[in-house]
Records
---
Amino acid sequence: MRTFSSAIRLDSDEKKVEINITDQVEAVIKESSIHEGTALVFTGHTTASIHLNNADKDLERDFHDFLDNLVPNKDSYRHNKGDYGMNADAHFKSLLIGNSVTVPVTKGRLALGQWQAVYFSEFDGPRSRLISVKVTGKK
Ligand code: ZN
C-alpha cells in the first residue's frame, strides 16, 4: 500500500463559477503510479466546494442559480456585518455541498460514472485556491 499527495492550484476568475478539475486530478493519479485504490480530493477553503456532477456547461450555471435561490445572501447575517466581506451565503453553500469527494481508482484512472466529473465550486471569487489530492492504493 502506498500513498501519494499532491496539490492543484487554481485561480477562479469569477465571483461564482464551476471549474471541472477532472483532468488535473487524473494527472495526479498518473504521477502517483497507483493503479488500484482511492483518490481523496479536498479543499480547505470555507467559501468553496468539491463535488461530482454532470459535465455540462448549462448545468454549471444552473447549479449556481439553484444555490442562489436556496441560499440568498442577507444583510442581516451577523457575518455580513463584520470585516469579513459580504460572503455568509458562500459559507453556507460550501457547507451544503461539502469540501471533498473520494473516488475509486481503477486501472490508474478515476472510476467515475459515465457523465460524472470532479468539480471545484467557487462561491466567493475571484481568488487563488488550493486543492489537495491524496491517492492511496497499490501499483
Ligand atoms: Zn466570510
Note: The beta strands are 2-11, 17-20, 36-43, 48-54, 100-106, 109-110, 116-122, 128-138.
---
Amino acid sequence: MRGIVYLVATPIGNLADISKRALETLAAVDLVACEDTRHTGKLLNHFNIKKKLTSYHEHNEQARTEELTEFLKQGKSIAVVSDAGTPAISDPALRIVQRAHEIGAKVVAIPGAVAFVSALIVSGLPTDSFFFGGFLPSKKNERRRRLAEVSNVPATLLFYETPHRLSKSLIDCLEVLGNRKAAVARELTKLHEETILGTLEELTEKFSSGDIRGEIVLVIDRIEIANQKSQIANEKSLPERVAELENEGIDRKLALKRAAKEFGLPRSEAYRILQAGK
Ligand code: SAM
C-alpha cells in the first residue's frame, strides 16, 4: 500500500487563516516536507505540533523528490507545505505530485489561502474568467514578450510581483497592454493590507519612486471587448495581422495603421505590441 501526499495550504500572512483540516493533517502525517524548516517549524510550534521536517525547495527539489518517493513506496504519508499559501502555486510541489501519480500514490489537496485568488476578489475586476501568470520575467525584453503574448487573453490578468520590480513592470504593462484598469494588492491578510486601484497610467505614476514594500499581486483588466471581438473574428494576433497585410503588398506603415484600427488600438500602442512581439 502506497503512502499519501497531502498538499497543505498555509496562511499568506494571518495565522488564523489555517484550516482545522490543515492542522489535523500536519499532526497526523509521518513527515512534513517544507521550503524552509525554520519557517515551518515556527508555524507548527505556534499550533503545538511536533513533527519531523525535511527541506523541499527549488534547489533540492529534484534529489529530494526521489527520497520522498521512496518514503511513499514504504506506505508513509507526507505533507508538503510552502512558506505561504498553496504548494505548487509559484512554489515547489509539482515534481512530487507527478512522481506520486507515477507510482500510484494518492495525492490529496488540503485547500486554503492562495494570494492571487484573494487579490482577484478584492480588485473589483471581472472574476468570471482570469489568467494567472505567476511571476513576470525579471528581464525587460522577456517581460515585454510575455506581456505581448497574454495581451489578447480575454480574461483578468494576475501576476505576482516583487516590490523592487513593481515600478518597471507597471511601465511595461502600460506600454504593452495599453492603459487598462488595474489593482495592486499588497500585504493581503496582514496588518498593512491595502488594494490600490487605478489605471495602469495612474499606478505607474504612483509607484514611480519605487517606494513600496511587502508582498504584491498585480491585477489587470482584460483587453477591451471591442478588441477581443476583433481578435476572435480574425483569430490572429496583431503582429500576425500586420504580417498578413504586408504579405498582401501593403507597406508596413499602412499595415500597422489598418491593424491598429481593426484591433481598436491607438497606433502607438499597436506599434509597441508589434515591437514587443519580435
Ligand atoms: N504559494 C503562494 C500562493 O499560494 O499564493 C505563492 C508563493 S510565491 C513564491 C510568493 C508571491 O506570492 C509573493 O511574491 C507575492 O507576489 C504573492 N503573495 C504571497 N503572499 C502575499 C500576500 N500576503 N499579499 C500579496 N501577495 C502575496
Note: The longest helix spans residues 163-177.
